[in-house]
Amino acid sequence: MNINENTVLPGFIAWLICSCNLGFNFGTIRPGGINKALKDNVGLTDDNGNSEGVLQVTDYRTADDASQPDSAAGNLGYTVTAQLGEFIGKADPDLTSGSKFTTAAGTTATPAFVMTLNQVTGNTTVTGPVDKDSTQATLEAGGPEAKVLGFNADEGSYGQTTINYKAANAASLKAPANVTAGSYDAAVTWTLNAAASSNE
């Protein structure tokens, strides 16, 4: 999913774009077993994102105030979060079996798939004083979103930051013990927030 934030905010020329349409493929997983490392980035469906595993944020926002120094004008900060949706069996896309394998609020507690996005070394071009790494995130199917990338204000967000989830150790997935054999697919929702990240 590509998310764009081009809204003009008071005092700023906004140009903040997240290209985060990427897929994760973990191959064959033993139910209830250990976390399975990432196989590649080729998804099961045609809309499952790029096969390069690249998450990229371009931040060219500048303050519309000549009195502000350039360092403060171009480093406004932002946050990227990810949320893992419910896993649906490809042989049962309409959920006629009633098994969503999610522990979303308000549903019967069913053991969920859990995907871990590990910390990955990032690369920031243009004015970033240091390369920004991603934040490790544990995502439970149907659960809440978690931060995967964030810049505090004046931390060097201006420019283009790239996170590559391509290596085998970049992500892992654990399947619930009671899942039946088959192919499963889930959506990952990426959200770009123009607000600066916190130190949490």
Automatic annotation (TrEMBL):
<keyword id="KW-0812">Transmembrane</keyword>
<protein>
    <recommendedName>
        <fullName>WxL domain-containing protein</fullName>
    </recommendedName>
</protein>
<keyword id="KW-1133">Transmembrane helix</keyword>
<feature type="transmembrane region" description="Helical">
    <location>
        <begin position="12"/>
        <end position="29"/>
    </location>
</feature>
<keyword id="KW-0472">Membrane</keyword>
